Amino acid sequence: MQASPTATVKILFIGDIFGKSGRRALARHLEPLKAAHGLAMVIANAENSAGGIGITPSVADELFQCGVDVVTTGNHVWKYKEIIPYLESNGRLLRPLNYPPGVPGRGSLLFTTPCHMRVAVVNLIGRVFMDGADCPFQGVDRFLEQTALGRDVDAIIVDMHGEATSEKRAMAHHLDGRVSAVLGTHTHVPTADHHLLPKGTAFQTDVGMTGCYRSVIGMKAESVLPRFLKQMPTHFEQAQEEGALCGAIVTLARQGGLCQQIIPVRLGADLHNTGL
């Protein structure tokens, strides 16, 4: 007799993989995490994974080989022009959904896990203190008209890539009960507000950076400080010391796709994980 599937599924969402330090942390920690927690799927934001800004086809391939299933991005996705044809050919690499029509690539993906759970991943970008984009609220509403949780898919994970904490939180409340999780990226600092919203959607303002924390959000402090001290342009250099993997694990009900638990993941140098 075949065993029935478990009632819940765990998905790991990894924040902002930054340069070589972040990629090394990913390679070191991801497989043990998958084995320890029985993860059904891994999503990672990697818009800064190549040299600390942007992503290249070879780096994207490296992340997939490490065990990442879907890669999301943000405002730095266009740094290297060679990523444009890759975005068109590889649907597992996303760019924000709310860019104007005709922009290369796609902003969402339907991924089926090995346990046959249909997971939609949606990549959004905020507009507050960011470069111009179409409205993320209207964009995700249009998406949900065609792809409803519990009707068309079993889970929906939203990467809300934005600068303003208020905009990210507003998005989470806007989507509460309609998606499984809204997880923030872009600011490279893990916040302590991981929780479940009233209707069952998991939220964290920013899941943090996967990279070197002995830095200024990934860059060597000595290359950044002159910008603040003298208001003069400087060349930023990525920090190369040992990095940490940061993100969140969401436990989702197979029936209905809402979240039952969200725990932070903080593994590596200088960070003490309190959730695992």
Which outline best applies? globular
Number of strands: 11
Strand content: 15-25%
- The computed structural class is alpha/beta
What's the CATH topology label? Purple Acid Phosphatase, chain A, domain 2
What is the terminal separation in angstroms?
34 Å
What is the rounded Rg? 18 Å
Structural overview:
By secondary structure, the chain is an alpha/beta fold. The chain has one domain: Metallo-dependent phosphatases (Purple Acid Phosphatase, chain A, domain 2). The chain contains 6 helices and 11 strands. The strands form 2 sheets. It has a 6-stranded mixed β-sheet with strand order 4-5-6-7-9-8, with helices on one face. A 5-stranded mixed β-sheet has the order 3-2-1-10-11. A hairpin with a 5-residue loop joins strand 4 and strand 5. The protein is globular. The two termini are 34 Å apart.
SSE inventory with pairings:
Elements (H helix, E strand, L loop, with lengths): L7 E7 L4 H19 L3 E5 L11 H10 L3 E3 L10 H7 L18 E5 L5 E8 L10 H11 L8 E7 L3 H11 L5 E5 L9 E2 L5 E3 L16 H10 L13 E10 L5 E10 L8
Parallel strand pairs: 1-2, 2-3, 5-6, 6-7, 7-9
Antiparallel strand pairs: 1-10, 4-5, 8-9, 10-11
